[in-house]
Amino acid sequence: MAHPDRAETFKVWDAPLRLFHWLLVAAITIAFLSSEGDSPIATWHMVAGWSAAVLIAFRLVWGLIGGEHARFADFVRPSAIASHLRELLVGRTERAIGHNPLGGIAVIALLGLTGVVLWSGITVAADRMDEDLHEVLAYGLLVLIGIHVGAVLLMSLLTRENLVRAMIGGRKKRDLHPGARDARAPGVFAMLLGLVAIVLTSLAILRAEPTAFSHQHREAHHGAHDERD
Ligand code: HEM
Ligand code: HEM
User: Fold this and answer.
1) Nearest ligand by distance to the CA of 218
2) In principle, which of 8, 101, 122, 137 could form an S-S bond with 80, CB 3.0–4.6 Å?
3) For residues 138 and 5, what is the distance between their CA atoms, to the nearest angstrom?
4) Domain range spanning residue 164?
5) Best of 14, 18, 21 to mutate for ligand 2, by most ligand atoms within 8 A of CB?
6) How does pLDDT run across 51-96, given as a tens digit for each residue?
């Protein structure tokens, strides 16, 4: 793989954040692929959903104590959105080191809507809600993901910066960001707290739903749903 020289790049995204992103992509992809009752991987739907819940819990903690550009305080800047939009409209696009102002809102929307879809799925599984709302919310999330991926690709083109590669390797090119320095890395204490958040959330989920992480027939577990489709 072409690997830009380390001296020519600088750190932006910390490793736990990148791992979070691609695991969330995997979990949500599996949740969609397994969502139809007659899917060959239907038994994995709830495992994928519960795993996404653990990931979201980690991300909330990481937004407070994670690496520099992972922190909410670094990228939730509503006051900067208007001028960012004005620049986009006149075709001027400034590269951002972390999330740009509009991207910051998209991050909150993606995390928030994923949380709502998870809540609705959990409520369906507990037989307290009709499946339709969960399905509508899930497709709403799919639309938002489409916009997210489109925006990432568009901004990569407009700013001539490969944002996807940065979310994989964690680094951006120095020549596109003169004077930029390595992002502050998360401390050991933050790493530990992140791990604690993952363990505690998993334990809480297992307490509420002992089979949450073992794949099984939804029908066998929640007998009321097998008449669907
Ligand atoms: C981001 C995560 C999730 C996505 C994208 C998602 C998506 C979907 C979709 C699209 C359907 C409708 C399937 C159809 O076409 O009939 C569905 C059904 C369902 N989902 Fe989810 N879901 C997620 C998480 C969860 C979670 C966390 C749970 C429970 C713990 C859950 C439980 C269910 C149940 C019980 C059904 C009804 C299926 C049946 O009756 O067998 N989902 N989900
Ligand atoms: C299930 C699908 C996806 C979800 C739920 C999702 C969610 C997210 C979230 C929450 C963030 C913010 C990262 C953070 O600070 O926590 C993000 C950023 C990002 N995502 Fe995704 N993503 C998805 C798919 C993709 C795909 C397929 C790509 C590649 C084309 C991608 C590329 C990126 C990039 C490059 C960023 C960083 C954007 C920036 O530079 O500001 N995502 N995504």
Assistant:
1) 1
2) 101
3) 41
4) 9-219
5) 21
6) 999 999 999 999 999 999 999 999 998 888 888 889 888 888 889 9
Domain count, the chain: 1
What is the 104 CA–ligand 2 centroid distance (Å)?
11
pTM beyond 0.85: the answer is yes
For residue 173, how far is its CA from the centre of ligand 1 (angstroms)? Answer: 40
CATH number at residue 135: 1.20.950.20
Residues paired with residue 9 on neighbouring β-strands, in sequence order: 173
CA angle 109, 212, 220 (to 5 degrees): 115
- Residue 16 covered by a domain: yes
Domain-located, residue 226: no
Does residue 3 lie in a domain region? Answer: no
Which is higher by pLDDT, 78 or 46? 46
Is residue 157 one of the residues assigned to a domain?
Answer: yes
